[in-house]
Amino acid sequence: MNSAPRRDFLKTTGTLLAGVATMGPLPKARPAGAPDRMGVGMIGPGGHGSSLLRSFAAQPDVRVLWVCDPDAQRLQAAAQAVAAATGHTPRTTADLRHVLEDRAVGAVVIATPDHWHAPATLLACEAGKHVYVEKPCAHNLREGRLMVEAARRTGRVVQVGTQSRSAEHVHQAMALLREGAIGEVLVAKAWNSQRRRNIGKVPPSSPPAHLDFDLWLGPAPAVPYQANLLHGTWRWFQAFGTGDIGNDGVHDLDLARWGLGVETHPSAIAALGGKYFFDDDQQFPDTQSVVYEYAAAGGRTRQLLFEQRIWSPYVQEGHENGNAFYGTEGMLILGKQSGWQLFGPRNALRQEVRGGIDLGRHIRNFLDCARSGARPRADIEVGHLSSALSHLGNLATRIGRVIRFDPAQETVLSDPEAARGLRREYRPGHWAVPAGVSDGGRA
């Protein structure tokens, strides 16, 4: 866009936004000749999984055949919800292997804790199922690569639950950045600013009778049950979650990477952070600042910034969680839940659009791609690159020094301690340990 004045570009913005080819109208529910309904198994129907369950059950070409959860109370509630919404009562199980063994199941939805995302996806792909898996797609960087390889090897469609990838206003913003609305984008920022709760300090105890805690643990190292471990709060424990950078932060990291126009891993990562506010059992930072540098590859070096304050009730730039894109001729502020603002030189507001997330649209994209074989908007390769930012950010924060990273080989350079942090320990002999990993070893 250097050859045209900025005002000329903005005159064409309406035409550009109207013609964003990646969005368009919602496709028909199913192409001619496709099966009437796809059998779906819901693995992890609690928390956000309950919203996914309702959305999938509402699709006209879906029949929820199974719900799976090691918590019998959640399992019963999920089955009842499907029956009430559809008139069909799904089968129930605590063990996901029963779902994967059913040849009538064409796709599974995985909304488990993070430590189950990769093992369940790998097993599902090998069983011939398409997969919709929640973010972050993996518990660690190595698992993410295994997921990409499994999807390609088996030809299965794997969509990651970063639903902002299907939001129309987000596609509009990305089109503006690609077309040079703010010049060359050299820096992108993502922030996660919200007030979380103190989870307290709780001693180990016996699990409740309605919970199969061993199945919940799965291939992760065995630890004693404690009441503030689940539900939901597992994300603050390193064996099971990825902290809030991998919980909420990954959404905005994904958008930052997309807007920055980088399709690889960073080459350097530096971070500072820790528990500055909470005095409880959480094992991840409540305050965190991470800098990712992308080495020049036919262009300029670029930088991605992440800020996290999960004790703060305040917002910045008008958004609780959001993004800023800094270009050589302007700035774009994006809130995935609200819209975007385009600024020119001297902070002149040039355009503003409101918008929000449509979970159904993201699910629709997955189902249509599962039928056609096309790559979904949040394909597993996309999800892996963005989830890796969470893993690398946590690793750099934990070791307290700059990580030099080889994006092509997905390895840390000259730092054995940091390199070990790209993988995880597994429970020896567990049936869900990824194939090719020795008992007690690392993926």
Q: Which structural class do the helices and strands define? A: alpha/beta
Number of helices, counting only DSSP H or I runs of 4 residues or more: 14
Could you estimate the helical fraction of the residues in percent? 25-40%
Number of domains: 2
CATH class of the largest domain: Alpha Beta
Mean pLDDT: 91
Q: What Rg do the Cα atoms give?
A: 22 Å
Instruction: Tell me the major beta sheet.
Output: 10 strands, mixed
Let me know the CATH homologous superfamily of the largest domain.
Dihydrodipicolinate Reductase, domain 2
Content of β-strand: 15-25%
In total, how many beta strands? 16
**How many angstroms separate the termini?**
45 Å
CATH architecture designation of the largest domain:
2-Layer Sandwich
General form: globular
Give a verbal description of the structure.
It is a single chain. The protein is an alpha/beta fold and 443 residues long. It has helices at 6-11, 13-18, 48-57, 72-86, 96-101, 114-126, 141-154, 168-178, 213-217, 243-247, 249-260, 359-372, 380-399, 416-420, and strands at 38-43, 62-68, 91-93, 105-110, 130-133, 158-160, 185-193, 268-274, 287-294, 302-309, 321-327, 330-335, 339-343, 349-354, 403-406, 411-412. The model is unreliable at 1-34 and 438-442 (pLDDT under 50).
Describe the protein's topology.
Elements: H1 6-11, H2 13-18, E1 38-43, H3 48-57, E2 62-68, H4 72-86, E3 91-93, H5 96-101, E4 105-110, H6 114-126, E5 130-133, H7 141-154, E6 158-160, H8 168-178, E7 185-193, H9 213-217, H10 243-247, H11 249-260, E8 268-274, E9 287-294, E10 302-309, E11 321-327, E12 330-335, E13 339-343, E14 349-354, H12 359-372, H13 380-399, E15 403-406, E16 411-412, H14 416-420
Parallel strand pairs: 1-2, 1-4, 2-3, 4-5, 5-6, 7-10
Antiparallel strand pairs: 7-11, 8-9, 8-15, 9-10, 11-12, 12-13, 13-14, 15-16
Helix pairs in contact: 3-4, 6-7, 7-13, 8-11, 11-13
